[in-house]
Amino acid sequence: MKKILVLEDETNIRSFVVINLRRSGYEPIEAENGEMALEKLKVNTDLCLALLDVMLPGIDGFEVCRRIRASGSKMGIIMLTARTQEIDKVTGLMTGADDYVTKPFSPAELLARVDALVRRVAVDEDEKSSVELKSGPFVLNTRNRTLEKNSQRLKLTQIEYMLMKLFMENPGKAMSREDILASVWGNDFNGELKTVDVNIRRLRIKIEDDPTEPEYLTTVWGYGYKWGY
Ligand code: CA
Question: What is the pTM of this model?
Answer without folding.
Answer: 0.59
